[in-house]
Amino acid sequence: MSLADLLQQIVGGASQPNASQLDQVTQSASKADLQGGVSAALRSDQTPDLSQIVSQMFGQASPEQQAAILNTITEKLGPGALAGVAGGVLAGHEGADTPQVSAAKAGTVTPDQVRDVVVSAQKQEPGLLDRISGIYAEHPDLVKTLGAGALAIALAHMKNNLSRR
């Protein structure tokens, strides 16, 4: 079954996709298609706030994925931007010239702290949403953490994009 057919079956169905269908989609879709679908879902006014979605993703991610999430969120922030956020848990880790957050350090950060970091980062960096959707493209298994509403929007966007080609 082609990716377009699978997406049509999922989007046209009345129930949520099962894990096997999601695995097929994430394995068959290009990174660009995944990123585009997730980006549409994150921009939608029908989904929770970005900070809530990222917090949920972070809570279900592996330590390595958690480090990638934190490094993506903080990579464009200037020195000291996180000193007063989330109890300063990531102070000194922002900006391209600073050390990367390790998996061990990421494991000490809570989803609530990540929510605070995202809220702060959104105020300073308008492109954050696109970079976060890129995390999902790089780690397709995290697409399952989106939640039902956001997942439906992402899959529908992917289906519509494929049908336009």
Structure overview:
The structure is a single chain. This protein has 165 residues and is an all-alpha fold. The protein has 2 domains: 69 residues, no CATH class; 83 residues, no CATH class. It contains 9 helices and no strands. Helix 1 packs antiparallel against helix 2, helix 1 crosses helix 9 and helix 4 crosses helix 7. The mean pLDDT is 86.
Task: List descriptors.
single chain, 165 residues, mainly alpha, 2 domains, 9 helices, 62% helix
Distance between the termini: 18 Å
Helix count from the secondary structure assignment: 9
Number of domains: 2
Catalogue the unreliable spans: none
Shape: elongated
Average pLDDT across residues?
Answer: 86
Most strands sheet: none
Radius of gyration: 16 Å
- How many β-strand stretches? 0
H/E element order: HHHHHHHHH
Q: Which structural class should the secondary elements be placed in?
A: mainly alpha
Share of residues in strands: under 5%
